[in-house]
């Protein structure tokens, strides 16, 4: 029995916990919005939303364990794609000067697929975006440019949101 629990934990989609980049989210957002006040507000809203959602969904520090609990029905929400869309639905009505995309890595690979929200300046290319990942570190904000994320190769999923 213990063997099956270990296997379930090990293979429950997305990826393992990663350390956030040693970079300032507000500064990274400033490169997109080019406005100090707005980058501060967006950064603060993302951090506060992450804290709220971590508590509301009772996210674990090990995201694969969280997925396992969802997949066996002990939790209702907290998969990577749910967190990406929740953040999109929170930010989009407040910040209209940003373009929003959903990005996917390892698409159609059940145990490895991962999804995040990508923010770009208006009319900028997807590949120039900043990814925001609330799943990777169990509700803690991870952010990176698409090119700087060495764990995944990101692809745009659908059109601009």
How would the blueprint of this fold be written?
Elements: H1 2-10, H2 25-33, H3 36-56, H4 63-71, H5 80-91, E1 98-105, E2 114-121, E3 130-137, E4 140-145, E5 155-157
Antiparallel strand pairs: 1-2, 1-5, 2-3, 3-4
Helix pairs in contact: 2-3, 3-5
Low-pLDDT segments, ≥5 res? 15-22
Rg, nearest Å: 16 Å
The number of domains is 1
- The proportion of residues forming helix, as a percent range, comes to 25-40%
Mean pLDDT: 87
Structural class: alpha+beta
How large a portion of the residues is in β-strands, by DSSP E?
15-25%
* Strand segment count: 5
Keywords, separated by commas or semicolons:
alpha+beta; 161 residues
